[in-house]
DNA sequence: CAGGTTCTTGCGTTTTTTTGCGGGAATTAT
DNA sequence: ATAATTCCCGCAAAAAAACGCAAGAACCTG
């Protein structure tokens, strides 16, 4: 096998699997590891792949998985935010949890919107301060450093005293069997209270989190009124949720 | 699984759920905890996540945007903050109001200090999040856009339920005749509640605000235990306060 | 075609990377 | 306070990479 052939083979393999191991390659092609290593080095120098200890990764892999974190799924979340905005009417009383999706929603609020937002999420509070016509009601109690959200019995109690028109929930995991689930006990308590205190519940999530689940349940699917994802509402992935009676946007 | 793959997996997981536990990761991936820990360390060094005891947190919404640094008399306020720090003991429960002087105090807290800080000031909450060993208790209620402080009967009620060891008050005006005074009705209510809920009250202020007064009284001089200014405690301006029984630092 | 040059490849050795493990320190939970 | 985790450090083994070298193939050139 010629050098060129070999390198083409490697690239082809890389497009299929996004990764190759030097060990596998040298067995399959029947050359020494040094040769493979030199091939990988050359291809790496030419910018066709990313050499790592033990083999190589495709450029696609690195772009997708190692994209700058602060823009991870940001575009998706902006789409979700814009769609969810339609649900907010002037003068509404809105409850929100935390999370980057919710934060994106708040950052996309129209400047002239008049509403009351009740939340225990510190980033959301920070974002809300910028809006002159929005009344912010802070949920007080112990601040969870992980989620940057106030949690605890006091928080639950304060939430249970209100009657919100709408509740936006950042979603950690959502599937048909377990409903809306999360991994932090205290956060689950707060979210539960929010669901019970609201006329309508809106779940906002990137599609990637659909059909996954976490250890603790916030609520069953029946309590969820709207599901907002970045996908087209007709996407087949969303079909089961529509069938379950959820309005998918 | 290659090292890079593993790290990509961790980052991906982190972006989905905002938090990962080393224990979970090493089970799922099938490597030792040390390996996971080293991965987390490397990713942390690269600034791609925040390592914490037991796992890691997503970088997504820990964008620490520092409030304006061009605060009036910042140097003076830093001196005041350093002096006031001496009053805080390990394990204390501390109440604080808002204001740039208080904020300066929080920013000068020692990293290893263990304490509980209860406050309704959004900037103070933001600053406190950075300290891993500080428990933050948020006072909830309506957020006043002017003072970035929660105010209202609920806030007052929550404050009145605690017994704090120390209360730091940002000071708007202080004089012999009217005591501690302020100009915002709702803020005054909150501050009153804080004074009543604390064993010791600390007023922090630049000397410029001494011997001035505002329309509404928070409390009389008798309730104030400590006065912290940028001046030397022996300064003659501070004499009357010492004579009134206040410990001047 | 002879002779020299360049390229490619494999081998042995050295160096680096990665990983797991044990024990003690530190931190957290009970 | 005490117990249980988790973390940190150094070590050692295994795997992989880098390096120099030399044999052979391919390629040019006169």
Describe this structure in words.
Two copies of one chain form a homodimer. Chain A is built from ten helices and 15 strands. With 249 residues, the first copy, chain A, is α/β, with parallel strands linked by helices. Chain A folds into two domains: 3-65, Winged helix-like DNA-binding domain superfamily/Winged helix DNA-binding domain (Arc Repressor Mutant, subunit A, Orthogonal Bundle); 70-248, Rossmann fold (3-Layer(aba) Sandwich), CATH 3.40.50. A seven-stranded parallel sheet of chain A has the order 6-5-4-9-12-14-15, sandwiched between helices. In chain A, strand 5, helix 7 and strand 6 (134-138) form a beta-alpha-beta unit. In chain A, helix 6 (100-107) runs parallel beside helix 7. The longest helix of chain A is centred in the N-terminal third of the chain and has 15 residues, at 3-17. Chain A is elongated, with a radius of gyration of 24 Å. The N and C termini of chain A lie far apart (55 Å). The model of chain A has no long low-confidence stretch (mean pLDDT 90). At the A-B interface, helix 7, strand 6, strand 7 and helix 8 of A face helix 1, helix 6, strand 6, strand 7 and helix 7 of B. Chain A binds a DNA duplex (30 and 30 nucleotides) through residues 3, 22-23, 31-35, 37-38, 53-54.
